[in-house]
Specification:
The protein has three domains: 7-129, Immunoglobulin-like, CATH 2.60.40; 151-328, no CATH class; 347-414, Muramoyl-pentapeptide Carboxypeptidase, domain 1, CATH 1.10.101. 26% of the residues lie in helices and 20% in strands. The protein contains nine helices and 18 strands.
Length: 420
């Protein structure tokens, strides 16, 4: 991915992290072209160090920004391992917005989504302030819970099978706080947000993979057991680290975490003979210890060459295994089970072509293609541009993560109105 070197790279720091900002309308999956973003260091918010403009896909160029030394995020220490930047966003016809505290880690690409409210809509978006990362800030430890819920004894209502939900409803506070807002969040976006809030994207991929599995399994246990609805609440999960795991409204996520989630989002952790996803406890392993996965410990095991499943077995036991959900909600149809590439043909190719043509109405950088069910060079080129716009490897083939990202974006642009 081409990068524009940032002028502020003349500072003393030899480390830098990438940044790309995407701006859409709060009315839905509508990119905003021509939005201007003024960037400043969070500690000096009035000093603009760069200004970016979004293209027809609502995205800025990738730029590089100074970041702390890499080793700060590879061992627990008191120095903040990421730099923080503020973004002031303006676009004609939309309310302005400030995002404060977006995190930049060295050697990884940060993806900052921004949603603007049209002037004709009632209300105004409050400025977004991103708090400290959980491994750096001070957050309450998780209240211990059993990893398997005794559903038969309590008579709780549960789902009949494990399904990946299209959305989760996140209560942005402790369960008993009626003033905390609820947010509808796309499941994969939720997992990406939590993973970017709970671990560092600079860690070994196997450690990131293991932590994402724990995050997804924890989340799906809440979904499957309808844990909060059975207590009379109208949400799926909270953003409180004492009760669940940290989700931060409006925060940035990291490209490598995003892609890994797209690749494994239908997975979760199981034990033999147990139908529900396991409520996988985890903690940082430094300030707080627990019976489950140690986040810092998983990083060290990744350094030693442990695979993701070996890390899982180390902390949860050798009988824990990776399972796959029975169904995925909110997609027109499931992945065909094989990669679509030049020479492929049939109904699945035609469906994908039709979806890309609908997405093109919102994202005109994607070229129109004939929906003839034949995967030729024009289809491959259109897929490659889709992958570039939505942060996937630009292979030009429709693999598992690309199929479901096309499906999700298609549903997003086709939906008349998002849930309230």
């Amino acid at each position: 991915m081409a990068k524009k070197l940032h002028a502020a790279q003349t500072t003393d720091s030899p480390y830098a992290g990438g940044l790309r900002i995407s701006v859409t309308s709060a009315l839905g999956q509508i990119p905003i072209e021509g939005a201007t973003i003024s960037i400043s260091v969070t500690g000096s918010p009035d000093v603009v160090i760069d200004t970016l403009t979004t293209d027809e896909s609502g995205q800025t160029d990738v730029i590089e920004l100074p970041a702390p030394p890499l080793e700060y995020s590879l061992t627990p220490q008191d120095q903040q391992p990421y730099s923080e930047y503020n973004f002031t966003v303006n676009a004609p016809g939309y309310e302005p917005l400030v995002v404060a505290g977006s995190e930049i880690l060295p050697d990884v690409l940060s993806l900052q989504p921004i949603s603007l409210i049209p002037l004709e809509m009632p209300g105004r978006e409050e400025d977004i302030v991103i708090p400290d990362h959980t491994l750096y800030g001070d957050y309450p430890p998780k209240i211990p819970e059993a990893e398997i819920k005794p559903m038969d004894e309590t008579g709780e209502i549960v789902l009949s099978r494990v399904v990946i939900p299209e959305f989760v409803i996140v209560h942005d506070g402790v369960p008993s706080d009626p003033t905390a807002p609820n947010y509808y969040v796309r499941y994969t976006d939720y997992i990406k947000n939590v993973a970017s809030s709970e671990i560092y994207a600079t860690w070994p991929e196997s450690a990131i993979y293991a932590n994402i599995l724990a995050i997804m399994s924890f989340t799906l246990n809440r979904v499957y057991t309808e844990w909060y609805r059975n207590q009379g609440y109208n949400f799926t999960i909270t953003s409180s680290t004492a009760f669940d795991q940290k989700w931060i409204y409006g925060r940035n996520v990291f490209e490598n975490i995003s892609y890994l989630v797209d690749t494994i989002f239908a997975n979760y952790l199981s034990r033999p003979g147990v139908r529900q996803p396991i409520l996988t406890s985890y903690c940082d392993g430094r300030r707080v210890n627990c019976t489950g996965l140690s986040q810092w410990g998983s990083k060290y095991l990744g350094d030693e060459g442990y695979s993701a499943i070996e890390i899982i077995h180390y902390y949860y036991g050798s009988d824990m295994y990776i399972n796959t959900a029975d169904a995925i909600s909110g997609v027109p149809s499931s992945w065909p089970g094989y990669t679509l590439t030049i020479g492929s043909s049939g109904a699945k190719v035609q469906q994908m072509q039709e979806q890309l043509n609908r997405i093109r109405q919102n994202y005109p950088a994607i070229p129109y293609i004939a929906a003839d069910g034949i995967y030729g060079q024009q289809t491959a080129d259109a897929v490659k541009i889709f992958q570039r716009v939505f942060g996937l490897p630009q292979s030009g083939v429709v693999d598992y993560p690309t199929w479901y990202e096309i499906s999700r974006i298609y549903v997003g642009v086709s939906r008349i109105a998002e849930p309230d």
